[in-house]
Amino acid sequence: MPAEKPGCRRRELPLLAALTIAMAFAGVSFESLTCLLCAGLALKVVLITLATLRRRIVSGQFRPIKEDGHPVVGFIINYAAKAMLLIFPLGPSPAGAKDGDALVADGAAEDSWLVGWLGAHRNATEQEPFVAATAIAYCLLAGSAPSACAGPLLSVYLASRLLHTLCQGLRLQPWRTAFFLAGLTTSMGFGVLTLVAANMAVQADPFARACGILVGGLQLKVSLITVGTVRCRIYRGQFIPDLREDGESVGVRCIIQYLLKPLVDILPLGSTDSMTMDAWLNSHRNSAEQEPFFLAAALAYGLVAPAPSSLAVQLVHVFLACRILHTVAYVLRLQPWRTVSFLTALFAMAMLCGMELIDASSSTSEHKAVGILTAALGLKAVATTLATLRRRLVSGQFRPLPEDGAPAVQLLINYVAKAMLLVLPLGPSKVPKDALRGEDAGLAAWLGIHRNSTEQEPFVLAAAVAYALVVKTTPAAAAAPLLYAFLAARVCHMVSYALRAQPWRTISFLAAVGSSVGFGAMAVASSLA
Which is nearest to 51 in space by CA: 212, 205, 169? Predict the structure, then answer.
């Protein structure tokens, strides 16, 4: 008999994995499935982080941050991380220089496997926190009588996202694209289902209904942003060029040419020029940076606070309206509406998180830790945003968007934002225009803090809220300490990143990863119990 080709077994792996996951989800209640979804996605992100770290070590392509050459950081990478990730031999790279300088990338060509894992992380950040929040909100609205299609939709989504990451790591096309589209389709369906449930639940708590409308609306908004980005990519042919398998797969070309093109032609709205595509991409990134923190805080507030006030309901509606307006204004390049809607939504998030932190701190609820965690990390996101804005004001490094030169925007920046952030003197900046293209180290640090927060924290927040939803009365004794440890590590990471204090930044990051693994495993065990 002819020998079986290894490539055939590789192509069959996604089908076998899909069958295994489908069998594992059979018979799981919807609440447990929601907790399993959130905890599973949190653990998946940890695995992506470790795979990315492994590829950075193997290829030597780390970010060129000067303080990362600290000897303790070099020891952690060359001995602890290498041993944990089975990279041999241990010790510095053979091409290494003194004090670990060789760990810093020198601008060489990017490693294609590293690009793949970074893409998997970015894609998870842009898509998954919204569906996790939608599932939690639907649990609150539907209670013990969810729709018959809710469980299958959630199961298909979780399976699609797990298999999308697997195919991204193994470079399996067209499976990666097929599972991405399956996840996108089911997430849109689940967003519609949640909006319907929110509008039909007349007897439900007003805050729960507001949260249902909020998460359903933001989920559909993110899905439409994804469709708009895909439409621009198709018509301009600007796909990620570093993934060789995308150009070699006949299946991917068939999906793009014969499935996606007819679908995106149904919505022939807007232009497809490069500025429009940049606007879609920036809007998506901004949504991922801001909205998951508010979603987690709002959902946790509904669980922790016995009776959320009418002000909390109004803040939820204001945030939703502002975020939708922000996306529309971003794509249509409408200023000052984009800036006004962004700042108003940021203020609403600060207000809601502050109210939740006060209520949760004085609460005797068994889920007090969940309320404190979501409120504190939401306020941290607000503080990071304001610190980034302050650094942009000081250095004059704003994005070169033509519409940002509108007089109303300049008035907001030079007199309102400067006064609020104590950047004196007020008035137009005297930074020369050439400096706009420079690189400010302080701004790079705050952007790194924001990016890292977006990549790590929303997944643990969703897992914490889902765990509180499933384990209603007696959470495990380790739940609160793990959440507090995660919160302390993330705050320490932000401070040490801003002050460029190594090895504390690396140690706090690893401590947060460890506590998230412990909590994720505990949540998975609780959902399957």
Answer: 169
